[in-house]
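pinned: reference chain
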Amino acid sequence: MEQLNRIEIRGNVGNVNILKVGNRRVAHFSVATNFAYKDRNGEPVIETTWHNITAWEGNKGIPPLDCISKGFPIYVTGRLRTQKYISGDGSEKTSYDVIAGTI
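pinned: its structure tokens
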């Protein structure tokens, strides 16, 4: 069976940080997605989830990183990367990042 690690995110860009690594640039930015539903009392609830995205400029499917700005609606496909680390208080934490393939 073929393995697949693919994620699709459509939402609005939050904070953007563009760094230069060697002769390439990489963007680390967040994307907010909303899920709307009604609670038991029929009241509308909007649940926002923030996703961390990493995009390397120059990769096929990645536009110039200067196009990515806060509030911009965006559609990202890529792969999910999980990283474990030890926080400052000594507890083990897990972070999830999307490595962008196309934007």
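why pinned: Residues 45 and 74 are 23 Å apart (CA to CA). Strands lie at 7-21, 24-38, 44-56, 73-86, 92-102.
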